[in-house]
Backbone:
């Protein structure tokens, strides 16, 4: 199973001293966080993508390429890459380039973003969010799998005789996750292609996360990629740790109370009860995280949010240290102990996909008309 | 078959004249439904009790509390509704609006509704048609033609009081029709006679029906 970090990349004032990092400091802190993740034995670092203040990561492949050059084992990923407003041709090129530079240590997560004006800023219509995600991703898949692409669609200038360069490393496209908090169409999309499904998890109650993952698992099986419990699932999580729960709460509370999104809203106690946020000892984080599998099933990737709400870099690095040294080793052992033999432990990686050879289903272009004739609205058992 | 009526009332005091009006309308609807040979189950949602939950939802980018989800499910499962608000600053109260802001856009599709309001003076009576009716229409509810407005003086005797009772009776008669004939349109989650009308959806659960991906991809090349 893979464990890692996902960063929103927000520039937020530290509420305990009023200090706001510069963009330069925040960019460098994200790099330091990724390198620390590798140092303590975590598997994944994922960068968000934003095109407005107070966020810095507008250009994830640039940052991930820089991190790739300074790491050996870390998988570089995104959380998320905007499949709606980015040109799929540019995504194909950027991530293939990153694959080459990182020796295949790359996957990516498709998402639609959370800032409405990004659509008009990039010339798109937010009301077409789902159709954009559907069409652009279908083209992206083809660009990574067909040598020469002829294509016409609704949203992009047509392509004739187009070859995306560089081709994916070893001819193996990166594994793709689809992230969505509440759109069943995106869970359906992930299931259709046999891709991974990631639920952000941290801003919603567990019943909701459970419902979305269940939908994805059932449809993954429906499309013949394997049994429902073999579908590739990732979850977010949010933690802050100290030697005692009391100390963790004392240190984290000012950051919680002033955090973007939920600050000045619910109490830390109620948010801890209603969402996966865990503020306490490493043992409490272990227990809570293991419980995630009780409601989504045995899963393959767990990403934690540790570097937001103005937390200073030293504290974030300390959290990653505890995570890597005390928490993740136990989680690895315990998750494997409960995982049935036939359920994959890791999501597909470059080497596992390469090992499948030229007949791998991963390399197949799934035709847009596949299954159209029996495509009646489907009931999913509750 | 027992019909299911949900009363949403936004009065803040205890006792509240808004609740008083809500109960009078609910009683009249019960009488009309019973007269048509059916039973009526009445559930009352006091928005004051959900005020903190509503504020929490607004302050967490839309994550509803479990108490709020119960109310959202209750509302979407209803056969008909009565919604009553006090007039605050020339419109419905903030808590009243927050509740409707917290509903799924498809939560009230085809829902037969009586709108009602209370105020200290009859000069606010247009609030029904200028504020409540457009709000409920936006949510694709079916608003009964008769709205019930009660100024303080309408709770007294004389012509004002008699006219209030008459308005309540007329609105109740209007709502009892759709409640009894088609269960308010919520049978099986469909509104009747309109395959194009979207199902009602509380938004609490991940939808049980999915559009197959091939349909979403339909028309694309390759």
Residues:
């Amino acid at each position: 199973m893979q464990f890692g970090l996902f960063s929103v990349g927000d520039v937020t004032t530290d509420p305990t001293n009023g200090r706001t990092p510069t963009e330069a400091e925040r960019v460098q802190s994200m790099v330091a966080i990724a390198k620390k993740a590798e140092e303590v034995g975590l598997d994944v670092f994922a960068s968000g993508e934003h095109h407005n203040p107070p966020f810095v990561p507008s250009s994830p492949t640039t940052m991930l390429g820089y991190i790739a050059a300074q790491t050996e084992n870390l998988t570089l990923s995104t959380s998320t890459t905007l499949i709606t407003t980015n040109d799929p041709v540019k995504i194909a090129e950027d991530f293939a380039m990153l694959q080459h530079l990182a020796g295949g240590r790359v996957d990516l997560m498709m998402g639609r973003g959370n800032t409405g004006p990004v659509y008009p800023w990039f010339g798109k219509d937010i009301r077409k969010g789902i159709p954009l995600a559907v069409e652009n991703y279908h083209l992206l898949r083809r660009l990574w799998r067909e040598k020469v692409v002829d294509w016409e669609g609704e949203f992009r200038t047509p392509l004739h005789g187009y070859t995306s360069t560089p081709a994916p490393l070893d001819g193996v496209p990166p594994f793709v996750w689809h992230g969505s908090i509440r759109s069943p169409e995106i869970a359906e999309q992930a299931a259709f292609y046999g891709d991974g499904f990631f639920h952000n998890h941290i801003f919603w109650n567990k019943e909701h996360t459970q419902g979305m993952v269940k939908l994805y698992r059932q449809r993954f099986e429906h499309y013949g990629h394997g049994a429902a419990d073999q579908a590739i699932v990732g979850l977010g999580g949010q933690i802050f740790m100290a030697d005692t729960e009391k100390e963790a709460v004392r240190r984290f509370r000012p950051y919680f109370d002033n955090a973007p999104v939920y600050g000045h809203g619910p109490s830390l106690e109620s948010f801890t009860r209603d969402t996966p946020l865990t503020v306490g000892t490493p043992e409490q984080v272990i227990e809570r995280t293991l419980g995630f599998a009780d409601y989504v099933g045995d899963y393959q990737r767990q990403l934690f949010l540790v570097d937001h709400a103005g937390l200073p870099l030293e504290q974030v690095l300390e959290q990653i240290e505890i995570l890597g040294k005390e928490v993740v080793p136990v989680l690895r052992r315990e998750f494997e102990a409960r995982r049935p033999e036939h359920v994959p432990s890791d999501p597909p990686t470059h080497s596992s996909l390469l090992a499948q050879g030229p007949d791998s289903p991963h390399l197949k272009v799934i035709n847009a008309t596949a299954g159209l004739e029996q495509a009646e609205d489907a009931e999913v058992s509750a | 078959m027992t019909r299911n009526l949900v009363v949403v009332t936004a009065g803040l005091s205890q006792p509240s004249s808004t609740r008083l009006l809500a109960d009078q309308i609910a009683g009249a609807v019960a009488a009309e439904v019973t007269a048509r040979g059916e039973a009526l189950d009445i559930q009352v949602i006091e928005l004051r009790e959900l005020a903190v939950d509503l504020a929490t939802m607004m302050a967490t980018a839309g994550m509803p509390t479990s108490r709020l989800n119960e109310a959202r499910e209750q509302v979407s499962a209803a056969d008909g509704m009565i919604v009553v608000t006090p007039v605050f600053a020339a419109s419905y109260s903030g808590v009243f609006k927050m509740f409707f802001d917290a509903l799924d856009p498809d939560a009230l599709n085809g829902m037969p509704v009586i709108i009602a309001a209370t105020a200290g003076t009859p000069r606010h009576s247009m609030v029904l048609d200028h504020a409540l009716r457009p709000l409920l229409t936006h949510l694709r509810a079916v608003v009964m033609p008769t709205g019930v407005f009660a100024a303080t003086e309408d709770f007294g005797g004389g012509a004002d009081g008699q006219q209030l009772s008459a308005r309540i009776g007329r609105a109740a008669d209007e709502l009892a029709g759709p409640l009894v004939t088609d269960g308010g349109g919520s049978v099986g989650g469909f509104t009747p006679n309109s395959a194009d009308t979207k199902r009602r959806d509380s938004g609490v659960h991940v939808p049980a029906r999915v559009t197959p991906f091939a349909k979403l991809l339909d028309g694309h090349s390759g």
Remarks:
- The helical segments of chain B are 17-35, 51-58, 66-76, 94-101, 127-138, 158-182, 213-217.
- Chain B touches chain A through 26 residues (CB under 8 Å).
- Confidence is low (pLDDT under 50) at residues 186-193 of chain B.
